[in-house]
Design a protein that fits this description.
Blueprint (H helix, E strand, L loop, with lengths): L3 H10 L3 H8 L18 H7 L3 H9 L14 H8 L2 H9 L14 H8 L2 H9 L14 H7 L4 H10 L18
Helix pairs in contact: 1-2, 3-4, 3-5, 4-6, 5-6, 5-7, 7-8, 7-9, 8-10
Organism: Altericroceibacterium spongiae
GO molecular function, one term: ubiquitin-protein transferase activity
InterPro entries: Ankyrin_rpt, Ankyrin_rpt-contain_sf
């Protein structure tokens, strides 16, 4: 016998909108944030990984937590950022996803975008309030990584032109690790 959470996640994997809707519409249902026991992935992680904007919006509309983490410490927004899925990042940020939520290594979505030299993703994250000075577990920030990258001036320029002033960021003053 499978649990309701397992059945829900399987229905999401199969893109069975009718079954998922019926399960979520039951009075008192809390299935929307069910997680896979092995990976810790929620339905929102799964639909983000398959770059499915329709399902992202549907699950968020049903109360999915945009800041839920899997066993790697990744949020759906981190996954969208790593995939270069700007529409997904925008939808998740609009729904309240914290743009500076780090993974287990302390890497933020912005740091991941800098590593990939994904300028459009960097712009989206910065406009959503990402902090270019927030450090990862090694003590380096997105700005530090931009400076270290060969051909990094373009990365630095994107950060300087698009970063919100510190007092306008959603998590102003919240940092991780030492500041230099």
């Amino acid at each position: 016998m499978f649990s309701d959470g397992y059945k829900f996640l399987e229905a999401v994997k199969k893109k069975d909108g009718t079954e998922v809707t019926q399960m979520l519409d039951k009075p008192g249902s809390t299935l929307v944030n069910s997680r896979d026991l092995t990976t810790g992935d929620s339905a929102l992680h799964m639909v983000t990984a398959r770059r499915d904007l329709t399902w992202i919006r549907f699950l968020l509309g049903k109360g999915a937590n945009p800041n839920i983490r899997n066993k790697k410490g990744e949020t759906p927004l981190m996954i969208a950022s790593q995939l270069g899925f700007t529409d997904g990042v925008e939808a998740l940020a609009k729904a309240g996803a914290q743009v500076d939520n780090p993974n287990a290594a302390g890497e933020t979505p912005l740091i991941a975008a800098v590593h990939r030299r994904d300028l459009s993703m960097m712009r989206v994250l910065l406009k959503a309030g990402a902090n270019p000075d927030r450090n990862d577990n090694s003590g380096r920030s997105a700005m530090d990584y931009a400076r270290l990258a060969g051909a990094g001036q373009e990365l630095i320029d994107v950060i300087e032109r698009n970063a919100k002033p510190e007092n306008e960021r959603e998590n102003a003053g919240v940092t991780y690790g030492p500041r230099f």
